[in-house]
Specification:
The protein has 390 residues and is of the alpha/beta class. The protein has three domains: 177 residues, FAD/NAD(P)-binding domain (3-Layer(bba) Sandwich), CATH 3.50.50.60; 93 residues, 2-Layer Sandwich (D-Amino Acid Oxidase, Chain A, domain 2), CATH 3.30.9.10; 71 residues. The strands form three sheets. Strands 1, 2, 8, 9, 10, 11 and 17 form a seven-stranded mixed sheet that branches. Strands 6-5-13-14-15-12-16 form a seven-stranded mixed sheet, with helices on both faces. Strands 3-7-4 form a three-stranded antiparallel sheet. A hairpin with a 2-residue loop joins β9 and β10. α1 runs parallel beside α2, α1 packs across α5 and α6 packs across α10. The radius of gyration is 22 Å and the shape is globular. It binds flavin-adenine dinucleotide. Flavin-adenine dinucleotide binds next to α1, β2, β3 and β16.
């Protein structure tokens, strides 16, 4: 049994988890004078999970975080059945940030703000009370906060429901350095479907940082993860196939990102809001979370200045329905992914697809994008949802 001590300190806002979303939210707060007199607490259990990843995203032209970039590109390639589709991205660019650079910068930045306190604490529970929320930590410390933004993500909770199928974007990536110059440093491979599909949606994702350094990541959108050996065997044979010659593995990353339309944000109360992956900030059909977290963090900070009820922040729009239809198809017919994504990149230009995936297209543009793959599976999925419910 856990016996908590009495309440220690009081804050206006507490962010649980200083990962991507929590950090970006705190950053937005530092930029707005509304928050300069507010006490902000950031609690993170402080394990290496914060540093074990790189984030990539696309955005138009220059961006606020460009000073932290490891690399950026202005074109990419998608491959399927020996065919390669090269896409110029203008006005977009594809950008990569390393977790270590991101956190080093923001940890130092937050120290400059006297109203922000960062504590290494593992949060166990949040209990609402008359004053706001009591945050109970494993250390037995208890913090009181008017509002809480919680980025603790609970995969089992997502999997315990059946209304919205849960696909997983699971991967292992190796940062390799080859002896020969074998990579085209100008062209990341977004989805290389030339790898064997084995009844799933499987592809290689390659980010070339130079002619002899790249991240080579074996990725699946499917219901269940593989053994570590299976991902690694595929990376080894991919490098062999491209005649990479000898190489060193400098670093590795692995992940499992939920692809699901379950409305996680519905847990929001007037005092506690889930954020980041835990709040459904992941784009369900792609797994991309970083850029949408930056945009949601901006919108949320602005929303807080209006002092409205937290429950009014989230709403589901048309893109939630589009994602749901695609996931319904991929969950039932996982082998269809390569053909669906390739038909999109074969028939439409990158700027339109990227605009659609960042949820900024008009309805006419949505129709153009969605008409690219064969429509029948989408019509069937839509009819299925009409009868079973959204
Ligand atoms: C290896 C990898 C690569 C990825 N690459 C990309 C990419 O290229 N582009 C993209 O858009 N997305 C990517 N993602 C997906 C997503 O952007 C990241 O997972 C992102 O970090 C999610 O942000 P978040 O804030 O929701 O969670 P996290 O960044 O995981 O932050 C959660 C934080 O909460 C803390 N925490 C957890 N439990 C507790 C607790 N009980 N008490 C206190 N603190 C706690 C953790 O220490 C952590 O710092 C990737 C994910 C992984 C794993």
């Amino acid at each position: 049994m856990c016996i908590f001590t009495t309440v220690q300190e009081k804050f206006d806002y507490t962010i649980i988890g200083a990962g991507a979303a929590g950090t970006l939210l705190a950053y937005e707060m530092t930029k707005n004078p509304f928050f300069s007199q507010k006490r902000i607490l950031i609690l993170d259990r402080g394990d290496d999970q914060r540093l074990d990843r790189t984030w990539s995203y696309w955005e138009r032209g220059d961006g606020e975080l460009d000073h932290l970039l490891l690399h950026q590109w202005s074109q990419f390639e998608v491959a399927f059945k020996q065919k390669r589709y090269l896409h110029r991205m203008h006005p977009y660019r594809y950008k990569t940030i390393e977790g270590t650079a991101f956190h080093q910068y923001f940890d130092a930045e937050f120290l400059k703000h006297k109203n922000i306190l960062i504590r290494h604490e593992e949060v166990q529970d949040c209990v609402e009370n008359e004053l706001g929320v009591a945050i109970h930590c494993q250390s037995k410390n208890v913090y009181q906060s008017t509002f809480v933004f919680d980025s603790r993500f609970n995969y089992p909770e997502l999997k315990s429901q059946t209304k919205y199928p849960v696909l997983q974007q699971h991967f292992i990536g190796w940062f390799v350095e080859t002896e020969e110059d074998v990579f085209d440093e100008l062209t990341p491979k977004f989805m290389d479907f030339t790898v064997e599909q084995k009844g799933n949606t499987r592809f290689m994702y390659v980010l070339p940082f130079s002619k002899n350094k790249a991240l080579v990541e074996y990725t699946l959108f499917s219901a269940e993860p593989l053994s570590k050996k299976e991902y690694e065997d595929e990376i080894v044979s991919y490098l062999k196939e491209m005649t990479s010659g000898p190489y060193k593995v400098i670093q590795m990353e692995s992940g499992n990102i939920p692809m699901c339309c379950y409305p996680l944000w519905k847990k929001t109360t007037s005092k506690i809001m889930p954020i980041g992956m835990a709040g459904g900030w992941t784009k369900a059909s792609t797994g991309y979370t970083f850029k949408s977290s930056q945009e949601k963090a901006k919108a949320l900070a602005l929303f807080l200045t209006q002092e409205k009820d937290l429950k009014d922040f989230y709403s589901a729009g048309k893109f939630w329905i589009y994602d749901m239809l695609l996931l319904d198809i991929l969950f039932r017919s996982n082998e269809k992914g390569a053909a669906i994504f390739t038909s999109l990149f074969k028939r439409r230009k990158a700027p339109l697809i990227l605009k659609f995936l960042e949820e900024k297209t008009s309805f006419a543009e949505d129709v153009m994008v969605m008409a690219a793959p064969r429509p029948w599976p989408f019509i069937k999925a839509l009819l299925g949802r009409v009868f079973s419910g959204f």
